[in-house]
Amino acid sequence: MNAYSLILSLLFCISFHEVLFSEKNKRETELLTPITSIGNIESGKQNFNLLVLGGGYSPSGNEVSLESNVKYLHRMQQEIGLGKFKLKTLFADGMEKTRDIQYRDPNFTVPESNLILAEIFGSTRGIFNQYRNNFVNADGPSSVKELDGWIKEVNSTAESAYNLIYFTGHGGKGEKKSPLNTSTYLWNNQKVKVSDFTHKLDSLPLSHSIILVMVQCYSGGFANYIFREGDSKKGLHPQIRAGFFATVHDRVAAGCTPDIREENYQEYSTHFWEALCGESRIGKKITKPDFNGDGYTSLSEAHAYVIINANTIDLPIKTSDLFLRRFSSFEPPKEANQLVSLIDQKREIESESDSNLSDRKVPQQDWIFRTDPISEILILASPESKATIKALAKRLSFQDQSLFEKAENKIEELKKRREELAKSKKKKDEQKKNLKNKIKSRLLKEWPELANTQHPIADRLKQPAKPSRLLTVANQNNEWKDLKMRKEEILKIESQRFKLEKIQVLAMRLKYEIENVILKIALPKINSPDIIERFSRIEKLERTILRQAKG
Predict the structure, then answer these.
(1) Closest CA to 59 of 89, 91, 90, 88
(2) pLDDT in tens, 254-282
(3) Containing domain of residue 67, as a range?
(4) Domain count of the chain?
(5) pTM for this one?
(6) For residue 263, is it within any domain?
């Protein structure tokens, strides 16, 4: 190819990219439109459906915090911007008059004799818990049958619909061969995998939009529902789907607790809904996030608010993050370096001429890398990403330009500290085990009947007595007292490890968000127009605005 032909080809490519970026800017303007305008609710041309799905798999896994999550959403539905959505709630055992909620009252006590027998011969797990019927006023149980019924109902309501599904419950890991195919658990231990869930939603018309908000352990696996059968190897699903998830596919999530004190609740949706309505679940007013200054709080801004403010072990993700990791790259393709350089130089010249950008310095590199100075990366970041990166850096007291390396080093440093604590815990566990075996041997020597803790003699030993013969035998040589001390020491070590993990996760969130920016910058440089267009449409759905104006 001669020089003249090469120049023409390069100019064509630059012009083509310019058209793409022009269309991108046009779409970003459209993203600011509130959903009340997008959906045209008044004309009745589009239906708005909200499914609240959750609770535990059984009473022993149906913590009161899950009930509280649902009640909070019900109470704040109007303020969140979901007032015009047709609500259906499927929770635990539904309307059955059985005790399906597990709770723990700090004033509830367990006799010492019960604790001894449970610790030595069984387990103390759940011994402080109590049960009652749920107060959700659900439309039905959380079951596969009811889920299928809702999908069928939504499918018949309108050709065009906007469907929001909120799941607050428990989740399970994917299998070794398919780790991304994680699960949710419905009532009576019913299990729904990503692949199953995706297949169920396939019956909805392609004209329907779907957004998920899922807060269970391993919830990030469900971000794959943007692919056919929930499998990225099978290509993108033709329906536009988006979602927000408490954590990635291979990590547990915070939030499930039988503790009745709501001020102690820390989980993804607590912060997500408060960002949208301006009020926490305990009635505290908060300033709603508005990172782009448009006067609204979008779903993606609420997600960023969670990442910034949640004091948990969660690593929240959204569907566009997963998309970027599937279709973008941290490293440039070798054959594209020269073209990328020319395109970047053209953008640099145009940016310099814009009065609004005159104080910015556009990076000179052919490719933006994670290890580049953060000031250069932030120039090309979205408002949400800028706010997230700056806030997390501040929380971590990082002040220099090498934020990515700082985050990586912090993650590794805290990992080592947590491993040291784990070694200390292991020693305490061994000491506790030895004490337990000594006490057990002594109790069986005194009462051989305790080989079966259902023997009537066990009931007599639980009766109040002063002094208690059971306690006297168990505490010989202060061994029962020492065992309880070991348990307290183990809890303190676990608490230390937990605090370190929450700091570690802040660094992980920072690293992850920097990677998001890098991958988003690279996406249009290495992909076809249809991939770029699909990413834009997913982002548009993620930036949905549920109410007319910021309160």
Answers:
(1) 91
(2) 878 777 767 677 889 999 999 999 998 88
(3) 42-98+133-326+528-542
(4) 1
(5) 0.86
(6) yes
